[in-house]
Amino acid sequence: MYYSHPYIRSNSNTQQTNHSINVVGEGMISVEPDRAIALLGVVTEDKNLSQAQRKNAENATNVINALLQQNVPRTNIQTFDYRINLNYDYKEGEQLFRGYQVTNLLQVIIEPVDRMGTIVDIAVENGANTVRNVQITVANKEQFYEEALKKAVEKAQVKASIIAQEIGVSIRAVPFKLNEVPTREDGRPRPMVLGVSTENTTTPIEAGQMQITAQVEAEFRY
């Protein structure tokens, strides 16, 4: 039943006994993603460090220029990681120096999301050879979360009213306590998988929908 423990509590420490109904309300809305985020990178290897850096810089510059030509704002292109690693091979227990590896990762924001496949293909055509952490999300996450939060409060009020009606009491419309509960999936970017493009096709993107949820804990007294 709705009114079983732990929904109903009483406090006998005050002169007037306070009874309360405790509920959890959850709100959820479905939204269509309007933004894609990806790490597009250039990885080069060479036994000569200067050569590896030069090749990497040339390819990375080509990728950036290609993105700008596709009307990706420069503010949507940001260096995410730049590193130089030493590569070794191991043969019969012996460590053999193979060369240097230079990695330059760019975080790119693409809007709208359906341009993602085209942008990835163009980046690869112009020198990018690694694509990582492709995600889809929405630009105004806070706005959608607030809508979900409003639904969560309304749901808590409805649940408390049902419980009160079931046990034959009247509750106050305004909750005595109302706490927002952090959710694990509150509209954060979620990963997606890119299909493989061929010579005459564009890398397919299936953005689908994403769920934004909010949760509250409420205490109503009667």
From TrEMBL:
<dbReference type="Pfam" id="PF04402">
    <property type="entry name" value="SIMPL"/>
</dbReference>
<dbReference type="GO" id="GO:0006974">
    <property type="term" value="P:DNA damage response"/>
</dbReference>
<dbReference type="InterPro" id="IPR007497">
    <property type="entry name" value="SIMPL/DUF541"/>
</dbReference>
<dbReference type="InterPro" id="IPR052022">
    <property type="entry name" value="26kDa_periplasmic_antigen"/>
</dbReference>
<protein>
    <recommendedName>
        <fullName>26 kDa periplasmic immunogenic protein</fullName>
    </recommendedName>
</protein>
